[in-house]
């Protein structure tokens, strides 16, 4: 009893002598040091940030549940540069793209597949074409899998066999199938390369990212591999601009990767893969926007127009484009609709920079495309109403008529040309001609040329003679 009371008393005395943890200076300092994160290692910091992220996600889900009746959020803030989330995202993207690249067929694999196809196909007695039926198709799939590996197996699915045209015996030609495999591999590789350059992983490429992609292709393109080093940057700028003209119609400054892959621009660029420049005619080089000849032509054209050498074009300088055949009203409308005013303000400060000049050239050289015709229609729409009237057609063609007469041509009636244009388009509303009417009539590019360029009207007026000249050599 006595000893027990002593022990209890001494225990209570000890508790009174030990101060609470919060009152001890070293404990407070340690807690403050750990709370700031300075005393933790990288693993502990990662653990704390992981807990914080999970807690934020939990709170966000709770908030969404509480606000279930409201409109859901459509925007998610991107992780900050250098944060754990950002690094995890980049690592996941890198591993995914590497995995996709590893299962892709390389050049040697494609060559081996072509050899397998030719060695195991049958020759059509009637046409001499190399073909295979579904049994041959399955056999070739087994051979390719043994020689190349399982990564080629996905091309030999029943659904792929059914995609190709079959003869009366149920056979398909091996060449279209092989070209399909090559194009699939090429587009997949292009998507991987573009995704690697997509810094924020949003599925869109900004101009500098698109230029970087083109710069990486140059050494592998037969017609561009010998490009002078000092011209590479300018070439990439010109080449990338066509992608944005056709794949970024809203001019947001970014092009969707999927749209780029499916565009004719990428196919046109890849044509430079096939042959050396010496084997391509001058006409083919001029028609391909991505050829070195075309890029140099654009630069020379801009420098020739820039008389004062200030890096921009005034209205007076742009009037000399195409030997001065464009009308005055069209040049004015181009500056009104597609050229931004300079920083200093005022009418004299508005001049066309190189990017706007590229848009201008692309629109005039692609008048039959929806993108080119949309650019030109904004200039033709004098009142900004979204449609043209007969009065607008009369006003636009009046300048063409003046240049036509100054060129020593025969007299013509503006009203007759106006009626002819209306008959060519056949607008849905007989009193209004909309952009949709120009697109649906399939002659929108011709109509635009007739209204802005005296040379375009001359080509339309002499279309029968020009057609006979083109057909003459073939008949001979």
TrEMBL record:
<keyword id="KW-0963">Cytoplasm</keyword>
<dbReference type="GO" id="GO:0000226">
    <property type="term" value="P:microtubule cytoskeleton organization"/>
</dbReference>
<dbReference type="Pfam" id="PF13833">
    <property type="entry name" value="EF-hand_8"/>
</dbReference>
<dbReference type="InterPro" id="IPR011992">
    <property type="entry name" value="EF-hand-dom_pair"/>
</dbReference>
<dbReference type="InterPro" id="IPR002048">
    <property type="entry name" value="EF_hand_dom"/>
</dbReference>
<feature type="domain" description="EF-hand">
    <location>
        <begin position="293"/>
        <end position="328"/>
    </location>
</feature>
<keyword id="KW-0106">Calcium</keyword>
<dbReference type="InterPro" id="IPR018247">
    <property type="entry name" value="EF_Hand_1_Ca_BS"/>
</dbReference>
<dbReference type="GO" id="GO:0005509">
    <property type="term" value="F:calcium ion binding"/>
</dbReference>
<feature type="domain" description="EF-hand">
    <location>
        <begin position="185"/>
        <end position="220"/>
    </location>
</feature>
<protein>
    <recommendedName>
        <fullName>EF-hand domain-containing protein</fullName>
    </recommendedName>
</protein>
<dbReference type="GO" id="GO:0030865">
    <property type="term" value="P:cortical cytoskeleton organization"/>
</dbReference>
<dbReference type="GO" id="GO:0035303">
    <property type="term" value="P:regulation of dephosphorylation"/>
</dbReference>
<dbReference type="Pfam" id="PF13202">
    <property type="entry name" value="EF-hand_5"/>
</dbReference>
<dbReference type="GO" id="GO:0005737">
    <property type="term" value="C:cytoplasm"/>
</dbReference>
<dbReference type="InterPro" id="IPR039865">
    <property type="entry name" value="PPP2R3C"/>
</dbReference>
């Amino acid at each position: 009893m006595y000893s027990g009371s002593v022990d209890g008393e001494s225990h209570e005395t000890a508790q009174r002598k030990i101060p609470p943890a919060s009152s001890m200076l070293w404990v407070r300092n340690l807690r403050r040091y750990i709370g700031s994160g300075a005393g933790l290692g990288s693993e502990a910091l990662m653990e704390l940030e992981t807990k914080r992220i999970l807690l934020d996600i939990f709170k966000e889900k709770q908030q969404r549940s509480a606000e279930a009746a409201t409109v859901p959020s459509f925007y998610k803030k991107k992780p900050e540069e250098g944060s754990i989330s950002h690094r995890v995202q980049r690592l996941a993207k890198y591993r995914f793209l590497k995995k996709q690249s590893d299962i892709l067929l390389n050049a040697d694999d494609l060559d081996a597949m072509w050899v397998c196809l030719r060695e195991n196909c049958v020759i059509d007695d009637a046409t001499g074409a190399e073909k295979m039926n579904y049994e041959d198709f399955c056999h070739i799939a087994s051979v390719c899998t043994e020689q190349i590996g399982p990564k080629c197996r996905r091309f030999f699915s029943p659904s792929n066999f059914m995609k190709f045209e079959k003869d009366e015996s149920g056979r398909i030609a091996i060449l279209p199938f092989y070209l399909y495999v090559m194009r699939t591999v090429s587009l997949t590789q292009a998507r991987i390369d573009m995704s690697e350059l997509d810094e924020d992983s949003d599925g869109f490429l900004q101009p500098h990212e698109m230029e970087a992609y083109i710069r990486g292709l140059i050494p592998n393109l037969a017609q561009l591999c010998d490009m002078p080093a000092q011209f590479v940057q300018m070439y990439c700028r010109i080449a990338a601009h066509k992608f944005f003209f056709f794949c970024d119609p809203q001019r947001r400054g970014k092009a969707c990767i999927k749209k780029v892959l499916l565009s004719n621009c990428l196919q046109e660029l890849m044509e430079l893969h096939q042959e050396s420049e010496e084997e391509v005619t001058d006409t083919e080089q001029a028609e391909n926007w991505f050829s070195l000849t075309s890029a140099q032509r654009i630069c020379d054209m801009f420098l020739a127009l820039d008389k004062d050498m200030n890096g921009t074009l005034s209205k007076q300088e742009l009037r000399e484009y195409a030997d001065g055949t464009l009308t005055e009203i069209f040049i004015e409308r181009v500056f009104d609709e597609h050229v931004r005013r300079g920083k200093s303000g005022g009418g004299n400060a508005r001049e066309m920079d190189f990017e706007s000049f590229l848009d201008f050239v692309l629109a005039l050289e692609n008048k039959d495309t929806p993108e080119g015709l949309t650019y030109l229609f904004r200039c033709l729409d004098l009142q900004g109403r979204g449609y043209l009237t007969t009065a607008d057609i009369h006003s636009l063609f009046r300048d063409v008529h003046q240049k036509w007469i100054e060129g020593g041509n025969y007299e013509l009636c503006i009203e007759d040309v106006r009626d002819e244009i209306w008959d060519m388009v056949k607008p849905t509303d007989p009193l209004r001609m909309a952009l949709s009417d120009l697109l649906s009539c399939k002659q929108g590019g011709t109509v635009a040329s007739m209204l802005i360029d005296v040379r375009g009207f001359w080509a339309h007026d002499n279309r029968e003679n020009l057609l006979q000249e083109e057909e003459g050599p073939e008949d001979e």
